[in-house]
Amino acid sequence: MNFLGLPADASPRLKAVQIAQISIIFLTMIATFLTAVIPQEHKAFTFGLLYTLIFTSFTTTIILRKEQQAALKGELTKSKYVKYQVIKLASAFGLSIVGFIAFIASTPQEGGKHRAGEQGLWIGGVKVNRYQGWILWLNFFNWVFLWGSLCYSCCMTGRQQGAIALTGDEEAHVGTDNVSDEEYARRLQAEDPNWQR
Questions:
Q1: Which residues partner with 3 through β-bridges?
Q2: C-alpha angle 128-138-57 in degrees, rounded to nearest 5
Q3: Distances (CA, A) of 64 to 42, 85, 197
Q4: For the chain, which residues make up each domain, given as ranges?
Q5: How far is it, in rounded angstroms, from Cα 147 to Cα 152?
Q6: What pLDDT score was predicted for residue 75?
Q7: Are β-strands 122-123 and 126-127 bridged in parallel, bridged antiparallel, or unpaired?
Q8: pLDDT in tens, 69-89
Q9: Whole-prediction pTM value?
């Protein structure tokens, strides 16, 4: 059974990273739809906040699909996964610059008047409401999950072939090994073809 395009034996950590990134993509689609449909005072400003998320969601979707296809074929090695994460992060940086330029170009220069004693976050003369704050948090978590996937790719064990599963002997079972040191040494000697009995 495939889970989100990943093989059944894929690492739970890999699944978690991909679920986090896919959730950002879906939440971006929902936010874009709501911004387009619901009338609001500063619609251009709200779309400006979404530009970076929209652009990075396109590249994240494409690269996630490539990761999933490679994992299904058993070709997702550590080096290939690291390459995908670096490409994903580099494209996110580039598209964030494009999104920022689109934000500057599309938002009106004049916003509301900041009254004395009024609290809240103001960006470009617009007081950020709860929905726009939610979009800003979505941007934050988009970056957290992109960096998280890069950290996961660098910290995983290095399998030279096959899907990145991190199961069995590769998992760290710290403190759960009930085998004595002597028994462990005997097992290693039995596995070594050069050991003389």
A1: 6
A2: 125
A3: 33, 9, 51
A4: 12-191
A5: 9
A6: 82
A7: antiparallel
A8: 888 888 878 888 888 889 999
A9: 0.70
CA distances from residue 88 to 41, 72, 121, 123 in whole angstroms, order as listed: 34, 20, 30, 28
Residue closest to 48 by CA, chosen among 59, 30, 32: 32
Q: Alpha helices, DSSP H only, in 6-77?
A: 12-37, 43-73
Task: Give the range with max mean pLDDT: 60-64, 79-83, 127-131.
Answer: 60-64
Task: Return the number of other C-beta atoms located less than 10 Å from residue 138's C-beta.
Answer: 19
d(Cα 53, Cα 118) in Å, to the nearest integer? 29
For the record, the structure tokens of 127 come out as 């007081």
**b/e 44-69 (16+ beta carbons within 10 angstroms → b):** ebbbbbbbbbbbbbebbeebbeebbe
Residues found in the chain: 197
Residue with tokens 């610059």: 97
Q: How confident is the model at residue 170 (pLDDT cuts 50, 70, 90)?
A: very low
Q: Which two tokens mark 79?
A: 């080096």
Residue among 46, 30, 10, 2 nearest 163 (CA): 10
CA distance 11 to 15: 6
Task: Find the angle CA(112)-CA(116)-CA(119) to the nearest 5 degrees.
Answer: 75
